[in-house]
Design the sequence.
């Protein structure tokens, strides 16, 4: 109880003192309870990381607890698999001799972005009017990247921005579902599609690095949130001894890359709203104020959308993947299938769009 006859400032001090005392008591109780949970786990021979929640009961109390140190078995299995794969790849990572390049007077950046490839998707012409499977997916990426390189002849490049991820894999579980559990029509086993994606990216990066130094950016996506991340980590590990290939393959959903006066953002497109992306770029990129030309390349939609939002051009890319049963049934088809690329000048921004149609 506070003395109402005391001055306001003294009553305020009493209140703060009471709050601090209550917090200290709470901290002591939390520590004591955690120690008790640890003791009970030790008595039972259980690893405390395996305990999600439970009850600790005695003659005097009955305590329900949630363990902040709980580690899900599925997550631990994924972590173990990731470490095993990366360690194995690191051991056999090839040594790439450094490629020395001549200085270019009027240099450009080539953006190569095979969006929403969906390796493992199954489409049949009998139902949807088009065929799509693992082999077609790989062939379209090869044809699309080579088509972009052919169509960009005449420009001199000192850098290539290669965007990976964005539903490179169609499923994320052995049960042939996406990360969130949505069933999919599939071609091939999950591990076969995973290894196909690894080989495809390694081969494409090797081809691009003959043209210019490559910076690889990874965008997490909704079909393959976990396996797509592991795939990106393996690609980085494979090229860890190369001085001509750099990486930004963190789990962050939005990535930013600066080239001269260009600020280029990439994201899958299933997260933040389109109209919020420019403001997020302004908050998240340290290069915002120093760049005159600003672009954000998104994916996920499988069709072309391009819009200027103030000083930022937000553009969704087309996909080379076919139309499966669900999309056909709902009428989500007939958009052009393509792989796209962009050419940026250091001073003048995006000067060319390249589209390889199928």
Sequence:
């Amino acid at each position: 109880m506070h003395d109402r006859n005391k001055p306001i400032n003294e009553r305020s001090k009493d209140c703060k003192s009471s709050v601090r005392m209550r917090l200290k008591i709470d901290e002591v109780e939390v520590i004591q309870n955690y120690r008790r949970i640890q003791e009970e786990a030790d008595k039972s021979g259980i690893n405390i990381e395996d305990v999600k929640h439970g009850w600790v009961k005695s003659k005097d109390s009955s305590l329900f607890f949630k363990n902040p140190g709980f580690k899900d078995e599925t997550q631990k299995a994924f972590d173990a698999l990731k470490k095993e794969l990366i360690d194995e790849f690191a051991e056999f990572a090839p040594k790439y001799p450094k490629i020395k390049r001549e200085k270019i007077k009027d240099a450009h950046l080539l953006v190569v972005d095979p969006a929403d490839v969906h390796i493992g998707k199954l489409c049949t012409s009998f139902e949807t009017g088009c065929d799509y499977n693992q082999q077609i997916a790989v062939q379209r990426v090869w044809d699309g990247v080579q088509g972009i390189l052919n169509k960009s002849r005449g420009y001199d490049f000192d850098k290539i921005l290669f965007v990976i991820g964005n539903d490179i894999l169609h499923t994320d579980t052995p049960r042939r579902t996406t990360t969130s559990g949505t069933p999919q029509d599939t071609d091939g086993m999950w591990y076969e599609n995973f290894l196909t994606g690894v080989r495809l990216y390694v081969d494409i990066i090797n081809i691009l690095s003959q043209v210019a130094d490559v910076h690889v950016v990874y965008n997490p996506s909704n079909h393959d949130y976990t396996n797509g991340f592991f795939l990106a980590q393996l690609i980085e590990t494979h090229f860890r001894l190369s001085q001509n290939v750099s990486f930004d393959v963190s789990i962050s959903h939005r990535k930013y890359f600066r080239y001269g006066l260009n600020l280029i953002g990439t994201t899958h497109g299933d997260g933040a709203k389109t109209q919020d992306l420019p403001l997020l770029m302004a908050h998240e990129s340290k290069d915002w104020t120093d760049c005159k030309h600003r672009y954000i390349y998104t994916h996920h939609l499988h069709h072309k959308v391009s819009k200027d939002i103030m000083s930022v051009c937000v553009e969704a890319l087309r996909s080379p993947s076919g139309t499966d049963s669900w999309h056909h049934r709902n009428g989500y088809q007939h958009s052009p299938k393509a792989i796209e690329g962009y050419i940026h000048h250091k001073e003048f921004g995006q000067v060319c769009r390249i589209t390889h149609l199928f």
